[in-house]
Amino acid sequence: MRVEAVTQLLENDLAPVITDRNRLAHGQWTWQLKSRSENVFSTDQATFDYNYVALRARFHMLDFIGRVVNLLCVSEPTFDRDFDSLMHKIDQAKGDLDGSGYAALAAQLRRSRRAHIPHRQGAPLASATTTDLPSL
What is the rounded distance in angstroms from the CA atom of residue 123 to the CA atom of residue 119? Predict the structure, then answer.
């Protein structure tokens, strides 16, 4: 069962990340070139519209997948002990892959910024813009 779960992680969650990375690295932003496994060119536009929350979730998911694979290779007892905990963390990260939490993060950053900017008499409070959000 656990081996099947790891296999599914690699096929369903890691493979798309590797594919996206390769498309970006080889300049396939507008169209996807023919791969060895496909015999036709794809006319679909590649979509890489991840926001900060989605990218951060993707990073965490990959980190946890890497930990699972490392434990599987290094120590079976540790793998057995930590598997459920890491799978739970992977599932949590998957919940943010759509980036839907971005609006809440932006609002939180705006509130945090307002709390740290001194207010001058008669001057309006500064408001944060999307350019004030952390970048990768």
Answer: 7
Query: Residue 71's CB: how many other CB atoms inside 10 A?
Result: 19
Residue ranges per structural domain of the chain: 2-113
What HEC string does 67-115 produce? HHHHHHHHCHHHHHHHHHHHHHHHHHHHCCCCCCCHHHHHHHHHHHHHH
For residue 125, what are its two tokens? 């409070």
**pLDDT per residue of the chain (136 residues) written in tens, 0 to 9:** 888 999 999 999 988 888 878 877 777 655 555 555 555 555 555 555 678 888 898 899 999 999 999 999 999 999 999 999 999 999 999 888 888 888 888 888 888 888 777 655 655 555 555 555 555 5
Rg (CA), the chain: 20
